[in-house]
Amino acid sequence: MFVRRHLRQSLLCLGLAIGIPTSFAKLFNSPSEWRNAAYDYVIVGGGTAGSVLATRLTENPNVRVLPNSTLRNVGVLASEVPLLAPTLPGTVYDWNYTTTPQLDYMLYSLASLDDWNRYAEVSGDPAREFVPPAVNDTANGTYLPASHGYRGELGGNGNILGVGWIQTTIGNGTRSSAATCYLQPVIERVNLDVIINAHVTKLIQTGKENILPSFRSVQFAQTPTGQRYTASAKQEVILSAGSIGTPTFSNSRELAAGIRTIVNNPSFNAAMAEWNATRTGPLTHPLNSFVGWMRIPDNSSIYQTAQDPSAGPHSAHFEMLFGDRFSILGQSVPQTGHFLRIATGLISPSSRGTVNIVSSNPFDAPAINPNFLTTNFDIFTMIESVKTVKRFISAPAWDGYIISAYGALAEANSDADIETFVRATAGTIYHPVGTAAMSPKGASWGVVDPDLKMKGVAGVRIVDGSVLPYVPSSHAQGPIYLYAERASDIIKGEWLPSDSCVKH
To answer: Cα-flanking dihedrals φ and ψ of residue 120, to 5°?
Structure first.
């Protein structure tokens, strides 16, 4: 099984904060346009966490922040039209990483209470607090309002098991992202600058503090042979380059030269016209309509030889994603027929992968080995997930609606056949975590303390999915939003005055 994500030019998001702002905000299209300054914070990475941090830190008008990224996805059609999300992996907007042989599609969930309790336990910080839920009106009974946040706040209730409507980060028929919902609305703040088309090449040691080496400067460039630039932070460097970029101190994207027509489909053109005019129609539909969070039975034979890797009894082992369209990796849509697609995903894996630097050139891609399906528990769980789907579609309620399973799935009945089917058709939905895992303060293992400061150095903090020591029972963007919001509060509590913040 191969999952290709090429690595090209990197994302550098420098969230830079300086004292009193002296000029208006500006978008710098390259490092050469950037005017050097002394900053309070340098945020490396411009994704979910980096955008949240840049937005929250600049609520203080005396703080200047510079998100610096290789690519800006605002105005990119495939990033805005929900149903075009599957066209992004393997492109410049996907950072184009390549795994060794072996996207989040707008699903929003916040993990289980078990997950958050385990994070608190493993970090040695049981008093850890996160953003509380807010209550608002229901949406025609599709979700529980007390389990969700509104007006910019995020929340969750803890027990995720069962099947229900999906929640998505789609608003007014358009994909919502940290860039569009956090960064873009505040882009005109006078204390916010943005650089795009840059790549962090290294962290620079700036001295020592209490015998620890301190790193409060970053070096970046636009190309491997291009001029090097340095940005320095008065307080700290914050790494938000993601689970792949952070451990290599870089994050990659490639500049796009434009959108090229691949298929001229009249039906698609009509749907595109409807979306352009009204932000309605079939292109506003997410890839999935329902999601099920499931556990294998408590008396499963696998527990005789393996421990349960999930966070607890209210956490899932696998998920079921329901969609009303054909979607199998590497297969074209059949010319005839109507399809119900039920994808299953391993939520509590026990396999562990690696990310390794392969050379001293910061523009070279790291070696990424997700190491999928290398433990008996993971294989057992995926086999059980397929069996669950087969039982589900054989229920009497589907009589007259579901004709049969499609392709090799129809003939996969034994455990061995199902394992062969899984290995032949499985892929990834891009939720890597744990490459810079959090551990208790003072522990000799792990990368960051509970306050997300990097162990063994001064002046560096990590805020992104890499700090999560275990895969959450959710799609990753919800917990990362939560961690970024929490980190913003921690940082502001440590360094910034509380009486000079604004919300807009």
So the answer is: -65, -40
What pLDDT, on a 0 to 100 scale, did the predictor assign at position 279? Answer: 59
Residue indicated by tokens 């993990």? 111
Residue 271 has pLDDT above 70, yes or no: no
d(CA 158, CA 140): 22
Task: Render pLDDT for 70-121 as a digit per residue (tens, 0 to 9).
Answer: 445 556 666 666 666 666 666 655 544 544 443 556 677 778 888 888 888 8
- Residue 349 to residues 114, 354, 445, 474, Cα–Cα distance (Å): 15, 14, 21, 13
- The strand pair at 68-69 and 290-294 is best described as unpaired
Please state the separation of Cα 11 from the chain's center in Å.
Answer: 14
The helix (run of H) or strand (run of E) holding residue 54 is: helix 48-57
Question: Cα separation of 409 and 80, whole Å?
Answer: 33
Single pTM value for the model = 0.80
pLDDT digits (tens, 9 = 90+) for 236-270: 899 988 888 888 763 332 212 232 333 334 444 45
pLDDT digits (tens, 9 = 90+) for 383-404: 999 999 999 999 999 998 888 8
Token duo for residue 36 = 């050097």
Of 473, 447, 479, 464, whose CA–CA distance to 123 is shortest?
Answer: 447
Question: How high is the mean pLDDT of the chain?
Answer: 75
Buried b (16+ CB within 10 A) or exposed e, 322-337: bbeeeebeeeeeeeee
Distance CA 134, CA 110 (A): 14
What CA–CA distance (Å, rounded) separates 253 from 450? 30
Contact 92, 71 (CB under 8 A): yes
| CA neighbor of 150 nearest in space, from 106, 108, 107, 112 | 108
Q: What's the rounded Cα separation, in Å, for the pair 232 and 66?
A: 11
Give the Cα separation of 285 and 301 in Å (integer): 40
| Run of H or E residues at 7 | none
Query: In this predicted model, which residue has the larger pLDDT, 36 or 407?
Result: 407
In 3D, which of 205, 237, 295 has the Cα closest to residue 45? 237
SS3 459: coil
Cα 154 from Cα 483, distance rounded (Å): 11
Say yes or no to pLDDT of 416 above 90.
yes
